[in-house]
Amino acid sequence: MKILLGLFLIVSFVSCSGSKSVKKNDNEIELSDASEFTEEVMSDDIIADEALANAGGAPIMIEETMGEANSVYTVQANETLMMIAFKIYGDYRKWKMLASWNQDKLSGDYKITEGMSLNYSAPAQEFVWQPEGNPYLIKRGDTLGTISTDTYGMSKYWKEIWQNNKALILDPNKIFAGFTIYTPNLDSRDVANI
Q: Has this prediction a pTM greater than 0.85?
């Protein structure tokens, strides 16, 4: 009987803890794993690994050892360290490597400006991503569901958008403002790209 009561309390506690909040720079960011269409916006602000882990995402792990920075990347307009890491390595989570190689330039705030030169270690094999579909710039407040509604007139095609952008969207509940994704051209009678 005590075991059943204990299990009931544990299940009740776990089911009531669907969302978490993280405090960052006096702005409260809601991170929820209870909804199908949640977002995590990272444009200029970078949320700590703990926030990602608490939101149900995996902590950022750098699998390879950091070699010496042997190449230089020139920052383009409106880029972030995450976007640059994706362009170079195919993994936006490697922004930490870029930050560590450029500590003297970043001054701890991770802000970069157009024209800035960043040091990086060139990967053994160049990352090439050739997406198909129409470009869509993610805005603050967007989710895959709202992007589907904006593009196709209904939210049910969010999975197709995710599948088309899996290299860039590792978790469909986490998309980033400022990233450009590609909405696929769907061959269906009830779908028209708006």
A: no
